[in-house]
Design goal:
With about 230 residues, this protein is of the alpha/beta class. It folds into 2 domains: about 1-60 and about 140-234, 3-Layer(aba) Sandwich (Rossmann fold), CATH 3.40.50.300; about 70-140, no CATH class. It has helices spanning about 50-60, 65-75, 80-90, 100-110, 110-135, 170-180, 185-195, 200-205, 215-230; strands spanning about 10, 35-45, 60-65, 140-145, 160-165, 205-210. It has a 6-stranded mixed β-sheet with strand order 1-6-5-2-4-3. Helix 3 packs antiparallel against helix 5. The longest helix has 25 residues, at about 110-135.
């Protein structure tokens, strides 16, 4: 395997399973064309996904966040709130009606069956909200969509380009503990082991940005990919 720290790279795509039944795009909203390219930005815990998405937004992309749509679906009044609350039980509902995200995170980490049940509720709703937002967007040279569980949810075939924000497992561990001092290295390692390994995501990605080091390195690599994907208008 090439060293991912060599810089932003365009890689041969690895074939995978098709997308789930709920992930349809009947209007072709994710199809890249001459006026707009749609890319998915993914990675692992503490790998810098949001940093990369923000960089493309600065360059001129419209930025969407799959997790933000998931929170919308689970908010009080959201389409998935009632069903999720019924599965999780009353202890997971805060006095203001919001679901206790910290409690849910701990529970689904220990209970894979619960995680799958919640994903079966949330993922289709999140997908629908994302497509609705895509319909509302005006012309943009790029739409950058942050999808943390892109490969786990089998959504990668729906995007022409997948950009991986890569950080080594050691970097991920250090960042996790730094931003969550009460977590501890043992628990952080368990969280990383519970995810698809970042090296497996590296194997599958079509484009890679090294997010191990200084921000200036990520900026340079993101600009290289922007220039490769977005035709010059000069």
């Amino acid at each position: 395997m090439e060293d991912p720290r060599a810089g932003a790279r365009l890689l041969p795509r690895v074939a995978d399973q098709g997308p789930p039944d709920w992930a349809a795009d009947p209007d072709g909203l994710l199809v890249s064309g001459p006026s707009s390219v749609k890319v998915a930005i993914t990675g692992g815990l503490a790998s810098g996904k949001s940093t990369v998405a923000t960089l493309f937004e600065v360059f001129g992309a419209s930025r969407l966040d799959f997790d933000q749509f998931a929170r919308q679906a689970l908010a009080p009044g959201g389409a998935g709130h009632g069903e999720a609350a019924a599965i999780l039980g009353p202890k997971a509902v805060l006095p203001d009606g919001q679901l206790d995200r910290a409690l849910i995170g701990r529970r689904i980490f220990r209970d894979p069956a619960l995680r799958l049940a919640l994903e079966a509720i949330v993922h289709p709703l999140t997908w629908g909200l994302m497509l609705s937002r895509l319909r509302e967007l005006g012309p943009r040279p790029m739409v950058a969509i942050e999808v943390p569980l892109l490969y786990e949810a089998r959504l990668d075939p729906l995007f022409d380009r997948v950009i991986l924000s890569f950080a080594s497992p050691e970097t991920q561990l250090g960042r996790l503990v730094l931003r969550n001092p009460s977590l501890g290295r043992r628990q952080a390692r368990r969280m990383l082991r519970a995810q698809m390994p970042i090296l497996e995501k590296l194997r599958r990605a079509s484009m890679v940005i090294d997010n191990n080091g200084p921000l200036t390195v990520a900026i340079r690599q993101a600009k290289e990919l922007w220039d490769a994907l977005v035709p010059s208008r000069g």
